[in-house]
Amino acid sequence: MRKYTSRVQRRVLRLPLLVVSHYANVRPTPQSWRKDVLGPFRRLILGDAPIPDDLPVFGMRSFEQLEQTLAEFREVLDRWSKLKPSHGARDLTELISKRSGLRLKRYVIDRRTRRLVPQWDTETQSFSEMLYSYFVLAFSQVPVQRLRRCVACECFFFATSPQKPKYCTGRCQIRTAMKIYRLRHRRTMPDGPSTSKTTDG
Predict the structure, then answer these.
(1) Is the predicted pLDDT of residue 127 greater than 70, yes or no?
(2) Own/partner long-range contacts of 99-103 (Cβ < 8 Å, ≥24 apart)
(3) Helices (H), the chain
(4) What is the pLDDT of residue 57?
(5) Of 144, 137, 127, which Cα lies nearest the Cα of 17?
(6) Which residues contact 96 (CB under 8 A, 6 or more apart)?
(7) Is 102 helix (H, G, I), strand (E, B) or coil?
(8) Mean pLDDT of 39-64
(9) Per the CB 3.0–4.6 Å rule, which of 18, 100, 176, 177 could disulfide with 133?
(10) pLDDT in tens, 23-44
(11) How large is the C-alpha radius of gyration of the chain?
(12) Predicted local confidence at residue 13, as pLDDT
C-alpha cells in the first residue's frame, strides 16, 4: 500500500512539471493546434473521443491566438531560466502571480491517499491563467533554478539535480560535441596540394 500511495503522489507532483514542459516546447501547426492545446489533458477530458473541430478548446479559438499566448509564455520562461535573485526576481514573480489568477478553492480528501489535498482555481479559468497557475505549482515543488534551456535545441527542461546542465538530453550533448569536433577538424586540416605553373622562356 505504501508503494502504491507513493506512486500516486509522484504522479500528482509530476503533473505541473509535465504541463509546463509540454506547453513550453510544443510547436503547434494550423492542423494540430487543437490537439496541442489539450496536451496532457486530452485523455482526461475527451477519453477516446475525437477532438471537436467546431468548438473552442480551453477558450482558444484559433491557431494564431494560441501561438501568441504560447510565445508570451515562452518569453516569461526564458527570463525565468536566466533568473538571478538580485536582478528582477520580484518583478517577474509578481507578473507570474498576476497572470496566473491562482486561488485556493477548497480542501478535499483524496480518495486514494485519504489525505487533505488542495483544489485550485483561477479567476477567469482561461487558458493563459492555466499556463501560469501550473507554472506556480511547478515551482512550489522544485527550486527555481531547475528550469533550464538547452543550448543545442533551445527546448526548456527541468534539471534533475542542483547542477546547471546545458543540454536537455545526452543526444543534444553528443550532437553539439560532434559539431564542435568537425569544426575544429576542418580548421586544422591542411590545404589541398597546390599546383604551380611554370613557363619556359
Answers:
(1) yes
(2) 99/128, 99/129, 99/132, 100/129, 100/132, 100/133, 100/135, 100/136, 101/126, 101/129, 101/132, 101/133, 102/129, 102/132, 102/133, 102/136, 102/137
(3) 2-25, 33-38, 42-46, 63-81, 89-100, 127-138, 170-188
(4) 80
(5) 137
(6) 76, 80, 132, 135, 136
(7) strand
(8) 83
(9) 100
(10) 999 999 999 999 899 988 888 7
(11) 24
(12) 52
pLDDT in tens, 163-181: 778 888 888 988 888 887 7
- Cell triple for residue 61? 479559438
Query: Residue 83's beta-bridge partner residues?
Result: none
Record the cell numbers describing residue 97, joined without a space.
502571480
User: What values do phi and psi take at 181, rounded to 5?
Assistant: -60, -45
Q: Which residue has the higher pLDDT, 51 or 63?
A: 63
Closest CA to 145 of 158, 131, 134, 132: 158
Query: CB-based contacts of 51: which residues, under 8 Å, 6+ apart?
Result: 34, 35, 38, 42, 57
Q: Quick one: DSSP state of residue 111? A: T
The span from the CA of 131 to the CA of 177, in Å, is: 34
- Residue 69 phi/psi, 5-degree rounding, is -65, -45
User: Among 106, 103, 154, 157, which residue's Cα sits nearest to residue 125?
Assistant: 103
